[in-house]
């Protein structure tokens, strides 16, 4: 794009972000309900140590859609490039790492993955709707972007806590349906996300008195 003017793509962005917001919202409702049923039927620990019924039926189908949606979400990067916006490391690293993780754990049938899928759907439904409003030039209070970043950090902290408990259970001999490759990949990924998103939060909303936050 060095020799080209940036594309505006406002209408395309509106359709793109609203579509992903609706898709993520529906996914959150379906997978959230399925997790709730797992907890009711088998208990909290079993819900992320055993595969259960989540991987079958409607929630299983949306798990499949979740994986392939990570390919579609690479479209975010194309919009950034075509509009000549800053493409930061966190953006492409997050997309690539999550895409690889989604397919790896879908093949393995990682037991705790339903929680990652549900929380990701939930956070993305809010995030993409915020992007949709921004593409429509609708002014949203700056604190909303801060809340979204906080939700993203919370998402990764919750997942890390689940991983820590799963690791403890495995060490004491409790059977959890998790492969070593999926577990350690996810652990590294989630810890790196906590660090990178916390760093983004600090640079955007704390550093220099939250100058960037106030400018938005």
UniProtKB/TrEMBL annotation:
A Gene Ontology BP annotation from the UniProt entry: fatty acid elongation, polyunsaturated fatty acid
Annotated keywords: Fatty acid biosynthesis, Fatty acid metabolism, Lipid biosynthesis, Lipid metabolism, Membrane, Transferase, Transmembrane, Transmembrane helix
Biological or metabolic pathway of the protein: Lipid metabolism; fatty acid biosynthesis
Gene Ontology MF annotations: fatty acid elongase activity
GO-annotated cellular components: endoplasmic reticulum membrane
Membrane disposition: Multi-pass membrane protein
InterPro entries in the record: ELO_CS (IPR030457), ELO_fam (IPR002076)
E.C. no: 2.3.1.199
Compartments it resides in: Membrane
The keyword Iron is assigned to this record: no
Catalytic activity from the UniProt record: a very-long-chain acyl-CoA + malonyl-CoA + H(+) = a very-long-chain 3-oxoacyl-CoA + CO2 + CoA
Keyword Glycoprotein: no
Pfam family, one: ELO
Principal cellular location given in the protein's record: membrane
Transmembrane intervals: 15-36, 61-82, 89-107, 113-133, 153-174, 180-198
Stated family: Belongs to the ELO family.
PANTHER family: ELONGATION OF LONG CHAIN FATTY ACIDS PROTEIN 6 (PTHR11157:SF27), FATTY ACID ACYL TRANSFERASE-RELATED (PTHR11157)
Protein name: Elongation of very long chain fatty acids protein
Species of origin: Panagrolaimus superbus
Lineage: Eukaryota, Metazoa, Ecdysozoa, Nematoda, Chromadorea
